[in-house]
C-alpha cells in the first residue's frame, strides 16, 4: 500500500513536473488525483504510462487523501490549504502564501530537514521560492564550514518562473520580432525577447520588489537570521533554468579550493568548475536535471574573506516540483506520514 496523493494545479508547468517526478523517484503512490479549477475539469494529464482526468477542486473530498501537493498560486492556496489541512492530509504548498507563517515550516531537505517536526501544527509545509531553494542549497554547506556574514545575489530568472504565459510570451515575441506577429508585452511589463527586465513581482516602499524580499526573508528563516542578504532579481529570455551570481563574505578566510571540496561533498550540489571556455554550467545544461550546479568559484579580493559563485538550477524541478516531492520523501522517512511501501531516493 502506498499513499493517496492529490496534485492541485495539475495542468500547470509545476503540477505536471510534480506528476513526472513522483513517477521518476518511484514515490509510493497508491492513488493519484489531478485537481484543478472547474474550467479545467476533464483535462487529461499524464502520470507514468497512465492518463488521468482533472477533477474540480470545489467538488473533491480531500479527506480521502494523505498528501496534497499544491501548485495553483497564492490566491488558491490561501483559500484552500488550511481547509485541506483540517480535513486530514498534509499540504506541501508551492506558493508564497504561508512561507512567513511561524506555524508553517519552510523546508529545503538538504538545508533544514529538522523543520519537518512542525508539519502537524497546521498540516501545511511551505515550499520556498524557486530562486531561494538553489541559493540556500549552495550556501548551507559553506555556512556550516565558515560562517557567512553577508550575501549579495543577482538573479537571472527564466520565463517559466512566470508560468506557461511567460513561456508563450517569449516564444511569440521572438517570432514577432522577425515579422510574424505582435511583439507588444502582455504578461511582462516590457519586451522579454532579446531583453532583460530588472523587475519581478511588485515594488515595495523601499524600492525593492517582493521577489527580492522573499529571497532575503526565506534565507533568514531556513539558514540564519543574522546573514545580511541583498538581492536584485532579473527576468531573462531563457525558457527554463534560473541562474544566480552570488557574492559571499565569510567570517574567516576560505580558499576557492576549500569551497570546491566542501560543495563537492554537499547533498544536492554538483560542482562544474574548470577554467576552460566551456567549464561551467548554463541554464540549457541544467534544464531537466535535479542538481543545483555551482561554477565559477573564485576569490573576491575587494572584501575580506570573499568568494564569488555562479549557481544554476532547473526552476521547475529543484526550484519547485522536485523539492516538493523530496519534502514528501522526508515526511515518509521521518514517520510523519507512514506507508508500507518503499521508494528510490534521488541523490546527486
UniProtKB/TrEMBL annotation:
UniProt catalytic activity: L-aspartate 4-semialdehyde + phosphate + NADP(+) = 4-phospho-L-aspartate + NADPH + H(+)
GO MF terms, alphabetically ordered: aspartate-semialdehyde dehydrogenase activity; NAD binding; NADP binding; protein dimerization activity
Binding-site list for NADP(+): 11-14, 39-40, 160-161, 315
Active site: 130 (acyl-thioester intermediate), 242 (proton acceptor)
Listed EC numbers: 1.2.1.11
Keyword Amino-acid biosynthesis found: yes
Keyword hit for Oxidoreductase: yes
SUPFAM superfamilies, per database record: Glyceraldehyde-3-phosphate dehydrogenase-like, C-terminal domain (SSF55347), NAD(P)-binding Rossmann-fold domains (SSF51735)
Residues annotated to bind substrate: 157, 235
Annotated pathway: Amino-acid biosynthesis; L-threonine biosynthesis; L-threonine from L-aspartate: step 2/5; Amino-acid biosynthesis; L-methionine biosynthesis via de novo pathway; L-homoserine from L-aspartate: step 2/3; Amino-acid biosynthesis; L-lysine biosynthesis via DAP pathway; (S)-tetrahydrodipicolinate from L-aspartate: step 2/4
Keywords, alphabetical: Amino-acid biosynthesis, Diaminopimelate biosynthesis, Lysine biosynthesis, Methionine biosynthesis, NADP, Oxidoreductase, Threonine biosynthesis
Enzyme class, UniProt record, top EC level: oxidoreductase
GO biological process, one term: lysine biosynthetic process via diaminopimelate
Binding positions (phosphate): 99
Domain Semialdehyde dehydrogenase NAD-binding span(s) in chain numbering: 4-119
Subunit and partners: Homodimer.
Family: Belongs to the aspartate-semialdehyde dehydrogenase family.
The protein's role, per its UniProt record: Catalyzes the NADPH-dependent formation of L-aspartate-semialdehyde (L-ASA) by the reductive dephosphorylation of L-aspartyl-4-phosphate.
Protein name from the UniProt record: Aspartate-semialdehyde dehydrogenase
Species per Swiss-Prot/TrEMBL record: Brevundimonas mediterranea
Amino acid at each position: 500500500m502506498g499513499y493517496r496523493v492529490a496534485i492541485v494545479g495539475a495542468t500547470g508547468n509545476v503540477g505536471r513536473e510534480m506528476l513526472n517526478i513522483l513517477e521518476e523517484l518511484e514515490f509510493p503512490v497508491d492513488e493519484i488525483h489531478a485537481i484543478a479549477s472547474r474550467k479545467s475539469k476533464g483535462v487529461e494529464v499524464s502520470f507514468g504510462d497512465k492518463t488521468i482526468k482533472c477533477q474540480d477542486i470545489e467538488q473533491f473530498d480531500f479527506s480521502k487523501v494523505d498528501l496534497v501537493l499544491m501548485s495553483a498560486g497564492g490566491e488558491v492556496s490561501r483559500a484552500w490549504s488550511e481547509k485541506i489541512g483540517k480535513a486530514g492530509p498534509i499540504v506541501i504548498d508551492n506558493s508564497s502564501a504561508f512561507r512567513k507563517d511561524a506555524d508553517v515550516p519552510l523546508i529545503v531537505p538538504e538545508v533544514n530537514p529538522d523543520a519537518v517536526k512542525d508539519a502537524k501544527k497546521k498540516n501545511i509545509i511551505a515550499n520556498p521560492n524557486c530562486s531561494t531553494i538553489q541559493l540556500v542549497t549552495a550556501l548551507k554547506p559553506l555556512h556550516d564550514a565558515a560562517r557567512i556574514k553577508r550575501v549579495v545575489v543577482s538573479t537571472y530568472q527564466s520565463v517559466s518562473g512566470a508560468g506557461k504565459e511567460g513561456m508563450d510570451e517569449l516564444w511569440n515575441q521572438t517570432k514577432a520580432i522577425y515579422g510574424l506577429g505582435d511583439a507588444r508585452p502582455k504578461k511582462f511589463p516590457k519586451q522579454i525577447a532579446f531583453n532583460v527586465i530588472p523587475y519581478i513581482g511588485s515594488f515595495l516602499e523601499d524600492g525593492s520588489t517582493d521577489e527580492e524580499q522573499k529571497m532575503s526573508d526565506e534565507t533568514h528563516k531556513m539558514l540564519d537570521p543574522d546573514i545580511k542578504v541583498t538581492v536584485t532579481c532579473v527576468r531573462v529570455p531563457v525558457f527554463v533554468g534560473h541562474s544566480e551570481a552570488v557574492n559571499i563574505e565569510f567570517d574567516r578566510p576560505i580558499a576557492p579550493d576549500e569551497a570546491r571540496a566542501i560543495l563537492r561533498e554537499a547533498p544536492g550540489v554538483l560542482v562544474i568548475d574548470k577554467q576552460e571556455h566551456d567549464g561551467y554550467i548554463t541554464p540549457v545544461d541544467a534544464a531537466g536535471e535535479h542538481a543545483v550546479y555551482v561554477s565559477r568559484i573564485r576569490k573576491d579580493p575587494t572584501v575580506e574573506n570573499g568568494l564569488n559563485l555562479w549557481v544554476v538550477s532547473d526552476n521547475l524541478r529543484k526550484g519547485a516540483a522536485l523539492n516538493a516531492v523530496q519534502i514528501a520523501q522526508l515526511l515518509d522517512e521521518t514517520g510523519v506520514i507512514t506507508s508500507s511501501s518503499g521508494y528510490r531516493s534521488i541523490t546527486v
